[in-house]
Amino acid sequence: MKSKKITIQKKGNENIFDKLSNEWWDEKGSFEALHSFNPVRIKFILNSLGKSIKSLKILDIGCGGGILCEPLARLGAEVTGMDENEKAILVAKDHAKKMNLKINYIHGNISDVNFRKKFDVITCMEVLEHVQSIDLIIKKSKESLKSGGFFLGSTINQTITSYLTAIFFAENILKIVPKNTHEWSKFIRPNKLKKTLLKHEFSNIRFQGILYNFFLKKWNYINTEKINYLFTSKL
Length: 235
Fold this sequence. Notes:
Layout: H1 32-49, E1 57-61, H2 69-74, E2 78-83, H3 86-98, E3 104-107, E4 119-125, H4 134-144, E5 145-156, H5 160-173, H6 190-199, E6 203-213, E7 218-222, E8 228-234
Parallel strand pairs: 1-2, 1-4, 2-3, 4-5
Antiparallel strand pairs: 5-8, 6-7, 6-8
């Protein structure tokens, strides 16, 4: 019997992210919003841990071209980035080399990997809304974490507001996100995510709403999780 895999969404036979492989480090290109997201993501990670990440072992699942991995490495963490998109991993390796950063990049699916050493922190940013099973990715994350380790990430709520914002406006009207990047059916309500985290024995679960200002091109914390939100949990 074949084991289940955590697969990233595809459109037809082509992975949507293959088309964007040469844009990962174009800060004014298709990933502009992700680049501007980094200060908020880093702040959330540091606040959640309540300490420096220097020397901590961090795994970034769905790392893409390494947009989050690089600032984590600059803060002194021992970073591993994983993505099943081979083109993205090649871009990440090349850019890290140019920046003189030591980051371990793995092309593969977390379903197939058993790490020899467990991690202090696992991040999963803007990934869960693209996978077939959040249960499986959380289960594998638990298996790869040290006791007391943190599992953090960001995703999109499944609401009418999120559809209008993340798909209708972002993809079709303003076109700041490539069309067909998202599927509303895969967006995740916080209560569903919380139940799955609890099922796998995570605790200290917290959500933080965030909003991207399309015109200022900046992310901010907000007091609702109706659209995008960050989450943190502890094993």
